[in-house]
Amino acid sequence: MPTPKDSGHESAAGAQIKPATGKLGVMLVGMGAVATTLIAGVEAVRRGKAAPIGSLTQLGTIRLGKRTDNQTPLIKDFVPLADLQDVVFTGWEIFPENMYEAAKHAKVLDKELLEEMKEYLESIQPMPAVFDQHYVKRLNGTHVKKGRSKCDLAQQLRNDIQEFQSKVDRVVVLWTGSTEIFLEPTAVHQSLEAFEKGLLEDDPGIAPSQIYAYAALKEGVPFANGAPNLTVDLPCMQELAKITGAPICGKDFKTGQTFMKTVLAPALKTRMLGLRGWYSTNILGNRDGEVLDDPESFKTKEESKLGVLDFILQPKLHPELYGDIYHKVRINYYPPRGDNKEGWDNIDIFGWLGYPMEIKVDFLCRDSILAAPLALDLVLFLDLAKRTPELSHLGIQEWLSFYFKSPMVAEGLYPEHDLFIQSMKLKNTLRHIMGADLITHLGLEYYD
């Protein structure tokens, strides 16, 4: 049984993981509300001004061995994660404002905190972004790269990554940008060869997010997709990730309403309670809400949000309980609300002898406040995966499903959406790579 990493003892499995020495560079694609909240928040934590609430890597614990062993170290003391003091931020944005100006526009964090961080935030100036308004109709980028082709734009991104790599020790790329229009895989996505040919020919199936993913993976850099875009959830990207040993995961941060669904739906199924309908609607006033006001971008988000119930409830196995569910999702752009999203759910259930009941949920949440700690965890865990021989060449990191609305899985598998199964998968993966016994919760050993 291994002990926490700071105790001086390490298993043979854990010893194979490269240490998190030096600087970890984080490159964010889209430096708006989520990105500025993440950057300012990490700096506030580093200065001792705030606690990293919502971050599993910073506050979460992991049980080792039997309950009677009383071994529950912090996750960051058990696996070799990068220290927050070693994290360096940069990224790309379609508007030229530095992170202080961008954070002021986002209106997520209070003025007092921003003023304390002003000098630091002003020092982070975004690089011009790869952008095409065809894929995000409600935005008009002014700080964008020009190129002869999508291949040329990909090379410009690779140059940006290479330059940043020269200043740090390791790099992770995270998409924190807007939701692109709905796309489905085409022939250009079926192989790396086809995709690279499509870059040269400006294939319309290749959206900007895919160009970022390609550039990162070609440089061997891990990539996480925080939006529902068709970005790394493609055969060509998975092929490239395995070749270069760059872990990938996605898609779409699981923050508000869907987070609640992945808590409540497993509870209904576990108790074998029936479900007739689930109506979900949101009001949101930030840039994300503005983008999702476009039907084509909303379609991408809708697909991400609607799939959750089918996979959790398994209607084919339980047709009498879940075979005829009416599931509706709506998102409404409402500027006065800003980043403070409100999600309403009306859930019509039935129980013993078919008697009807209802559940009402009104979640007044803060979108970027919920997303920022997820982004931090993903950056640190992807960096860990890159340094772990057993994980780095797998491509898809299914153990990070915990963070996503539409978790990526290997072909032929259905995704696990149950938050508690996802949590167990994540922690057991950490135990496994450190050589610790997996926790089954069987518990019979206490009664021998």
From TrEMBL:
Highest taxon listed in the record's lineage: Bacteria
UniProt-recorded Gene Ontology molecular function terms: inositol-3-phosphate synthase activity
GO biological process, one term: inositol biosynthetic process
Gene3D superfamilies: Dihydrodipicolinate Reductase, domain 2, NAD(P)-binding Rossmann-like Domain
Pfam families: Inos-1-P_synth (PF01658), NAD_binding_5 (PF07994)
InterPro entries linked to this entry: Myo-inos-1-P_Synthase (IPR002587), Myo-inos-1-P_Synthase_GAPDH (IPR013021), NAD(P)-bd_dom_sf (IPR036291)
Domain Myo-inositol-1-phosphate synthase GAPDH-like: 256-368
Protein family membership: Belongs to the myo-inositol 1-phosphate synthase family.
Name of the featured protein: Myo-inositol-1-phosphate synthase
